[in-house]
């Protein structure tokens, strides 16, 4: 071994300092992410990384550095919870690339040692990339059919692999899984798990928003098929309440109503009460669906419902959203007709209500 683990050796220090400075040149965003304390810790990590690499080369044992790379990555995700797992992965892969190029230029390693260094650093990059998806999932996420589809889709979201995410869901569709099942059993459950991972501090809010955006685009791929379904001459108006920005669930519900043959008017979020009443007057729906995710908006929801019920006493009103799961069956104390946690049950109720007893804003 030509480069001994003497961390005070000027040649060793020179390599560590060069790699450290090169990474900041390559990725200026690090200046925003790394305060003085983190920068010092990062330099120490560079020294440790080189020492572990040299040990692996000395014994010609790739596993030493691979195991260390995974351990280091998981450690950094806990030490820097404000950074996404994907972002930390990219930092480490950049680091291994810079270190590989640097060691190739030094005369402190023999040619055979340089070959080992390149191979071990490449392996470290691969196991680090794979570790991005190494997160424990909840029991509820694992339960039920189509888990493999959910898990693969979750992994694609965690790895920022947009193309793979689209491909997985399209493959599910071509495998014969219906749009309602894809929405309810794959997309909805995966996005709920994304929320769980955020709550556990395993991912950042940026990752949660990214996953939402990708899933909305994935859903949009089905619109041609959704809007080709036979019409039932029934109408749904749907929206979130107040300044609620969690609108993916109610958008899924609206899509599945449309797929069932309803004409849907999804109003989005941040609507005033007057705007909701105006939409009801314009579209004269058979069903109004309201969604609340954050409990502070429950009061606004109640006020909207009371206004709607006063002006449209026969209109069928359904509520849903995570906020209601925190309550003691609050919906039973409100003048609403239905509450459910899933779209299929809500659609079945809506069809029965309209077909059996009529109702709607026009009556």
Question: Layout of helices and strands, plus pairs?
Answer:
Blueprint: H1 10-26, H2 30-33, H3 36-59, H4 62-79, H5 85-105, H6 111-131, H7 139-142, H8 147-158, H9 162-174, H10 179-199, H11 205-220, H12 223-226, E1 235-240, H13 248-259, E2 263-266, H14 273-283, E3 287-291, H15 298-311, E4 316-320, E5 338-339, H16 343-357
Parallel strand pairs: 1-2, 1-3, 3-4, 4-5
State the CATH superfamily name of the largest domain. Answer: Cobalamin-binding domain
Beta-strand segment tally: 5
Query: Order of strands side by side in the largest beta sheet?
Result: 2-1-3-4-5
- When the domains are counted, the total is 3
User: What percentage of amino acids are in beta strands?
Assistant: 5-15%
**Could you name the CATH topology of the largest domain?**
Rossmann fold
> How would you spell out the order of helices and strands?
HHHHHHHHHHHHEHEHEHEEH
Q: Which architecture of the largest domain per CATH?
A: 3-Layer(aba) Sandwich
CATH class of the largest domain: Alpha Beta
The percent of residues in helical segments reads 55-70%
Mean pLDDT: 93
Evaluate the radius of gyration: 27 Å
> N-to-C terminal Cα separation, in Å?
88 Å
Assign an overall shape: elongated
Low-pLDDT runs of 5+ residues are: 1-5
């Amino acid at each position: 071994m030509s480069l001994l683990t003497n961390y005070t050796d000027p040649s060793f220090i020179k390599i560590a300092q060069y790699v450290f400075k090169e990474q900041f040149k390559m990725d200026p965003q690090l200046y925003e992410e790394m305060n003085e304390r983190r920068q010092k810790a990062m330099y120490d990590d560079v020294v440790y990384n080189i020492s572990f690499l040299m040990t692996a080369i000395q014994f010609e044992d790739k596993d030493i550095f691979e195991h260390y790379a995974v351990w280091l990555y998981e450690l950094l995700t806990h030490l820097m919870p404000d950074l996404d797992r994907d972002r930390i992965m990219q930092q480490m892969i950049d680091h291994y690339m810079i270190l590989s190029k640097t060691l190739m230029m030094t005369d402190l390693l023999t040619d055979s040692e340089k070959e080992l260094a390149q191979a071990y650093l490449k392996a470290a990059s691969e196991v680090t990339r794979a570790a991005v998806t190494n997160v424990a999932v909840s029991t509820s996420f694992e339960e039920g059919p189509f888990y493999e589809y959910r898990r693969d889709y979750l992994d694609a979201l965690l790895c920022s692999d947009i193309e793979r995410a689209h491909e997985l869901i399209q493959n599910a569709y071509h495998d014969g899984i219906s749009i309602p099942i894809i929405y309810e059993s794959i997309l909805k459950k995966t996005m709920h798990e994304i929320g769980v991972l955020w709550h556990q501090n395993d991912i950042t809010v940026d990752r949660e928003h990214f996953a939402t955006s990708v899933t909305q685009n994935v859903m949009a791929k089905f619109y041609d098929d959704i809007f080709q379904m036979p019409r039932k001459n029934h109408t749904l108006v749907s929206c979130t309440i107040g300044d609620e920005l969690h609108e993916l669930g109610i958008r899924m519900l609206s899509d599945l109503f449309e797929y069932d043959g309803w004409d849907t008017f999804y109003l989005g979020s941040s609507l005033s009460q007057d705007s909701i009443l105006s939409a009801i007057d314009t579209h004269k729906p058979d069903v109004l669906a309201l969604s609340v995710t954050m409990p502070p908006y429950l009061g606004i929801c109640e006020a909207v419902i009371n206004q709607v019920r006063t002006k449209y006493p026969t209109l069928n009103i359904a509520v849903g959203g995570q906020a209601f799961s925190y309550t003691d069956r609050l919906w039973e104390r409100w003048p609403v007709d239905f509450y459910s946690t899933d779209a299929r049950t809500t659609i079945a109720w809506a069809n029965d209500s309209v077909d059996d007893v009529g109702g709607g804003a026009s009556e």
